[in-house]
Amino acid sequence: MASFNGPINEAFPTPEHADKSTVSYIQKGFKISARKLPISKSGPIDEMSDKLGIPVPEMIFGDNMVSVEHIATGWRLEFNAYDALDRVDKTDKNMLQVAYSKEWSSSREKTHEGIKEIVKPFDWSYTTDYRGTVIKGKSFEAHGDRSEPIPIELLKRPDPILFFEEVVLYESELDDNGISLYSCKLRVMPDRMLLLCRLFMRLDGVIVRIRDTRIYIDFNLGKVIRDYTEKEGAFDKVKQNLLYSGTLPHDLTIALREPNQIAPLLPEVSHTLESLTLP
């Protein structure tokens, strides 16, 4: 089958094209890279679904990635769509229709009008606890009460931003019932960098979730901190909190699409700090 961009099931991109689509910046011994390419074609999508064992989101950017490499040691941390989706629950243990059966069942009945579908159970909200993939080198360690938090005050300094990128790994509209979006945003300053990889999931009328992985690197000390936070709250409570915070009723629809506006209003349900030091 032909398409405007060539055969719809061809392998894309070629390794050469992937390299050309990758932008990198080197700062004090660290190489920070990002790759942004179009939505995956049907061939790679089918291959990814087969490997994962679940259907992939309708908007999958399977060739996109963000990585940080320590040049001297080869240590490398990467965020990519496949590994993020591989952390989605592939059983029925965390399916939202179990926890919120009334709301979800009624919406599905209206959608499908009694047509029964047999689908392998999985978390169709594409909620993931993905915190990145250490491709090479030492792993992160938790230090309990001795864990060092990300120095927010240093990040508030008006340091020049030398390199900035924003990359989407996948997005689903959840059968027009909301959104599930995994994206990464990074900024590099002269002495430090911050990478935020965020899952934003909103199921209208049911629940809102945000799962944030922050990677902070102090270039001078070789210190890497990974801060992972899970937040979630009932959809109606989030709407109520938005109104209490000053959002006007006619602005609610827009506000519910803005994770930066919602995040401070959501209760925290889990938080872990890990770190490692590179020579």
Description:
The protein has 279 residues and is an alpha+beta fold. 22% of the residues lie in helices and 35% in strands. It is built from 9 helices and 13 strands. The protein has helices at residues 15-20, 42-52, 81-86, 96-99, 101-112, 152-155, 235-244, 252-255, 259-262, and strands spanning 22-27, 30-35, 59-60, 65-70, 76-80, 133-136, 141-142, 163-172, 178-188, 192-203, 207-218, 223-234, 268-277. The strands form 2 sheets. It has an 8-stranded antiparallel β-sheet with strand order 3-8-9-10-11-12-13-7. A 5-stranded antiparallel β-sheet has the order 1-2-4-5-6. The chain is globular, with a radius of gyration of 20 Å. The N and C termini lie far apart (52 Å). Residues 1-9, 97-101 and 107-119 have low confidence and may be disordered.
